[in-house]
Specification:
The protein is mainly α and 39 residues long. The chain has one domain. Helices cover 90% and strands 0% of the residues. Keywords: Membrane, Transmembrane, Transmembrane helix.
Amino acid sequence: MRILVWVAIAGWLSPVILAVAFAIAVRISPRLRAKIFHK
C-alpha cells in the first residue's frame, strides 16, 4: 500500500523535478537555450 503512495508522490512531483532540472540546464548552458529557442 505504501508503494502506491510513493508512486503517486513521484508521479505528482516528476513534472516539478523535470521543470527544475530543465531550468537549471537552461541557466547553465546558453548553447542549449539557443538551440531550443531557435526552433
